Amino acid sequence: MVFENLVAYLLDKWLSDYIENLDTKKLKVDLWSEKLTLQVPWKNIYTQSTKASIDGLFLLVVPKTDVEYDAKRDEKEQHDAKMKEVHQIEELRKEQEAQKNAKSSDKNNDTFMERMKLQVIRNLQLSIRNIHIVYEDKSTKPDRPFAFGFTLNYITLHTTTPTWQSTILKEDTPLIHKLGDLSALAIYWNTNAHSRSELSRDEALVFLRPLNIKARIILAMKPRQEEFKRPMFDIKVDLDEISLNINHLLDLLEFQDYLSVQSKYIKYRISNGIIEKPTVKRWKFAYEAIVNEGVRPRFECYKWKNIKLHLDRCREYRSLHFQELLGKATVEQKQRAEELEEKLDVFNLTYIRRCAEIEAKKRKDLEPKTWWGSVSNWRGGNEFFFVFRT
Is 321 inside any structural domain? Predict the structure, then answer.
């Protein structure tokens, strides 16, 4: 159970932009003969290394056919993705402003968690062995199913001295040297494979033949304090040879087009049983897709009532977000703001939130700095908000 939750967390964190409708509750991962080890020396974290190792992992991915469209789930996913982009833009802007306004920081300003994180990175030893991840598709082209995957013998990463000898760092150093070793990384692409169990090793078409890599990595732990005089990552890679073999590459391109088109127009698919005739169902689907995606938006965006409605939404959202920044927004106002966020796009949300933030900052700067004003704000909200002027 713990391992399944870990896999679900990693998939959601690193592959959420590439995987749609991932149901982690139905995720099944078996780890019987394989090993997953994590050793963290909490008592001696500054003198011993942290070890993470995986020995044996097979992951089989298949497409889910006959997906039923869920309007509420789709709206929620679109809203979450939109707000995630808005928050990323705001965080990036705040980081840039902080870099401009910040002076040279002292080493003692690091928090305990930051120092611990840096120490774990300094002496981290990583070992991954016997990995096989494969994707099998029988729905895109039923007459010629294909499989795509990669295999890995092992990959290791450990800390070294500047002369690339294994060591354990016990002191705070500005540079960390890591030595990585990758063995037998291979990518295969089978254009006529009904199942992995039905395919022999001789029939497998190797897209990337086994590749061996040695990497020397130099990490700059605090490049900002050094004004980025050296790169954050200085990596030197040694390769013996690279061999590629490409066959039926159009199947992969057609598969990508198939996924993009299906995800875009899945909302217009009609459930089985509503219309019995397949021809009528196809014509209905084509009509709904063309009208709703290409024709109707062009006419709706130039109507005055829609323009006025959009402006009213922008003004209302600015007022609500301004109240929220001041800490005076009620529960109903917050719910209304979330409803407006579903109607507005990323550009308008970013612009409106920034304008409200500037206005709120000006309002707070104009408030008198008295102890009674602070007490009134603390008691405050919408019931007891007033300012005592001296």
Answer: yes
